[in-house]
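The protein record quoted in full:

***
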Amino acid sequence: MPRLAIEVTSDAGRITRYTLDAGGAMVEPGERYHFSSRVNAPMGSVGGVAVKVTKGND
């Protein structure tokens, strides 16, 4: 299961980065892996959120 790299950008342009890791969980083709997580929102308003699936040590 790859890690997810999350970037939360404030309306002022400040970026906070988070990484979600499934701890090496294996998922077979066609299976689902349900998860939930919370990240801290920046002060003020959120300008954007980007989520990327990482490969290796990205």
The first strand starts at residue 4 and ends at 10. The chain has a mean pLDDT of 86. The radius of gyration is 14 Å.
